[in-house]
Write a structure and sequence with these properties.
- The complex is a heterodimer of chains A (about 300) and B (about 325).
- With about 300 residues, chain A is mainly α.
- Chain A has helices at about 5, 10-20, 30-50, 95-130, 135-145, 150-160, 165-175, 180-195, 195-205, 210-245, 255-265, 275-300.
- In chain A, α4 (about 95-130) packs antiparallel against α10 and α5 (about 135-145) runs antiparallel to α8.
- Chain A is flat, with a radius of gyration of 24 Å.
- The two termini of chain A are about 30 Å apart.
- Chain B has 13 helices and no strands.
- Chain B has helices at about 5-35, 40-50, 55-65, 75-85, 100-135, 140-150, 155-170, 190-230, 230-240, 245-255, 255-280, 285-295, 300-325.
- In chain B, α5 packs antiparallel against α6 (about 140-150), α8 packs antiparallel against α11 (about 255-280) and α11 (about 255-280) packs antiparallel against α13.
- Chain B is globular, with a radius of gyration of 25 Å.
- Classes of the chains: A mainly alpha (about 300), B mainly alpha (about 325).
């Protein structure tokens, strides 16, 4: 107890103290929690929705065409009904069913592509940073080369040549373009860590290479790895949605991007069928905002100087 | 102001050349792996137009010869590569005798114009807002409002484009729905035409600006936090310089430099995003060209557009890397 503690705290100071206590663990910061909650909400919607709502309503012609959401009227004067609470698209597909099936598909592509990309990135980044020499040269140059190629354009060529692709195939293709930044990031971190005191200390005390890699370096890399992972999920989803909006994604599986593609092609913007493109757009926006919040939260974990600002 | 060491220059140049060669090769290989035969697509298009096609075998052989896909692969590859280096991608199959390069040359100015315009706007706005977020003298409103507005910046431009298009073009009808200029105006350097171009370009540019400025603002925020505690800022404050002067001349000037490298890494995504914006606005640029080519299975055009966009990206990165040390004398080129 110092003399300062005896002085009465102002309310703002108390609140600050409470916050610091509550968020003492940097991983518990509100941005991170909110972002994760948004994404988990989308996943939960996909999982629970399949049981609560009839997934067969995603098929063409399962309902009336171009019905508005509940509480609205379309140009033909039809009111929305509870049978299709979010309305239907131009092919008579129920939008609620479409997003229940489509939104998790979009997330799935992003997560799978980034998981593969990250694994490649971790492997290559560590190899380059640790082994050095020729291995480093090859890995560094190929990452430098691949990082400037926009994935969308190569994949446009690919998918227009091959026609229909499956979701997994699309994720695998995108994974080929999201390993470069993690590779570069990890290589740079490993190189700088090799010079740091604690790693040299470990080396001097005779620790094995794998001990240094996984026990000494990995824990310090975790926030960067997560940040890099989230960034590549964003890139993957942006690329996947881009392909779908160009009409190049999976043709038979409902995805948010493909729904938007069909809406634009059917002139939904001029015909004021806002729910058709608006609802998938909103869901994509929620996904991206969730990812951004997670990324900002992770920034605070890895960069303590940012914490006092928020 | 350092001179560029030769080793660094060679290093960057090798990367640039490798990027172009590898991208061109991938673009060439992919359609060859595909089971789809472009000659059969062309034949199918003829059959759809004429009802039926006699002597289909001979026509197929002729089409293959025209497209140059009857030769050994290695010959095709070198012919394609030597063509690509001088921007000769053959003839479009959908708009048949038009060379692909002509189509691209017509579309390229629109894409570049839109890109440069929206980039300059976002760079200025984004960096200024990012700096104001950290500056301790900026109004409360700025500090609260910007982080809130930032949420929208994670959204790809195609989504903001749809929203802006619906509100300002379909509902309010303040701006035209599609196109790059009015069909009633003769293209040329007349005031009417320029006006029409600006009017039509406003929404596509805005949809890119609203979602990309946050990227710069976020980066700038991080950099400004770093600069804030520097000794030279403290010295400037101690000298009693005006705060605004310190902000612009001391803090922003030093913080902004790494943003230029961030730009190099981001440009690929920016261009890809813009291609999609052009597609939804039916803006006469590379995006529309690419989309039409996909619809028509017009491979030479798809390859040409992809190659040119990759080339622009690689060149921009190369230039940023070279110019950077001239802007920031603190940086020495590391010969890695």
């Amino acid at each position: 107890m110092t003399s300062q503690d005896n002085m009465p705290m102002t309310r703002a100071e108390k609140r600050q103290a409470k916050r610091i206590k509550r968020f003492d663990n940097p991983w518990m910061n509100p941005k991170l929690i909110w972002g994760a909650a948004l994404l988990l909400g989308i996943i939960a919607m996909g999982v629970i929705g399949r049981f609560v709502w009839d997934p067969d309503l995603v098929f063409t012609g399962s309902s009336m065409l171009r019905l508005p959401p509940v509480g609205f009227e379309n140009l033909r004067g039809q009111a929305g009904t509870m049978a299709n609470p979010l309305g239907t698209d131009g092919g008579g597909r129920d939008l609620l069913a479409l997003i229940i099936i489509g939104a998790p598909n979009t997330l799935f592509v992003g997560l799978l592509a980034s998981l593969i990309g990250m694994s490649i990135g971790i492997f290559l980044g560590f190899s380059a940073g640790f082994l050095g020499g020729r291995t480093d040269d090859v890995i560094r140059v190929s990452a430098d080369v691949m990082i400037t190629i926009p994935p969308l354009l190569i994949l446009v060529v690919f998918q227009s040549a091959f026609g229909d692709v499956s979701l997994t195939m699309m994720a695998l293709l995108i994974a080929g373009f999201v390993w470069q930044s993690p590779t570069r990031l990890i290589r740079a971190q490993v190189l700088s860590m090799k010079q740091s005191g604690y790693v040299q200390m470990a080396q001097l005390s005779g620790a094995s290479t794998s001990h240094i890699m996984f026990r000494e370096m990995m824990p310090n890399l975790v926030p960067y790895l997560f940040g890099s992972f989230i960034a590549s999920v964003t890139t993957s989803i942006v690329t996947a949605v881009g392909l779908e909006v160009l009409g190049l994604g999976p043709q038979r599986i409902p995805t948010l991007g493909r729904t938007i593609y069909e809406a634009i092609n059917a002139g939904a913007l001029i015909q004021n069928l806002w729910w058709w493109w608006g609802i998938p757009t909103l869901l994509l926006a929620i996904i991206f905002i969730g990812l951004l919040l997670i990324n900002l939260g992770l920034d605070e974990v890895s960069n303590p100087r940012l914490r006092k600002l928020s | 102001m350092g001179r560029i060491p030769r080793a660094y220059l060679i290093n960057r140049l090798t990367t640039l050349i490798l990027t172009i060669l590898i991208a061109a090769t991938i673009i060439w290989i992919i359609p060859r792996l595909s089971p789809v035969d472009p000659a059969e697509i062309a034949l199918g298009r003829m059959a759809a137009g004429a009802g039926s096609v006699a002597n289909s075998e001979e026509i197929l052989a002729q089409l293959r010869a025209n497209m140059g896909i009857d030769e050994p692969l290695i010959v095709q590859y070198f012919r394609y590569m030597s063509g690509a280096l001088v921007f000769d991608f053959g003839l479009s199959t959908a708009a048949f005798p038009t060379p692909v390069s002509t189509l691209i040359l017509n579309a390229l100015p629109w894409t570049l114009g839109l890109m440069i315009l929206s980039l300059i706007i976002t760079f200025v706005i984004g960096n200024l807002l990012g700096a104001l977020m950290v500056w301790d003298r900026s109004p409360k409103l700025v500090r609260v409002a910007i982080p809130a507005a930032m949420v929208f910046t994670s959204i790809p431009p195609i989504l903001s484009g749809l929203l802006l298009m619906w509100i300002f073009a379909a509902k309010l009808q303040w701006f035209p729905l599609t196109g790059a200029y009015s069909i009633f105006v003769e293209p040329g350097w007349t005031w009417e035409f320029v006006q029409s171009v600006l009017y039509h370009g406003f929404l596509p540019a805005l949809s890119i600006v609203v979602v990309t400025f946050g990227f710069w603002a976020l980066g700038m925020r991080g950099l400004m936090i770093g600069v804030q505690g520097e000794d030279y800022v403290k010295l400037a404050e101690a000298k009693g310089l005006r705060p605004r002067y310190i902000l612009y001349r001391y803090m922003i000037r030093n913080a902004i430099l790494p943003q230029i490298t961030a730009f190099a890494l981001k440009i690929g995504l920016l261009i890809a995003g813009q291609v999609l914006v052009e597609r939804i606005f039916a803006y006469n640029g590379m995006g529309k060209l690419l989309y039409d080519a996909i619809l028509n299975q017009d491979f030479p055009v798809i390859q040409g557009v992809s190659f040119v966009i990759i080339l622009i990206t690689a060149l921009s990165v190369f230039l940023v890397d070279l110019v950077y040390p001239f802007i920031d004398p603190r940086i020495r080129h590391e010969v890695a």
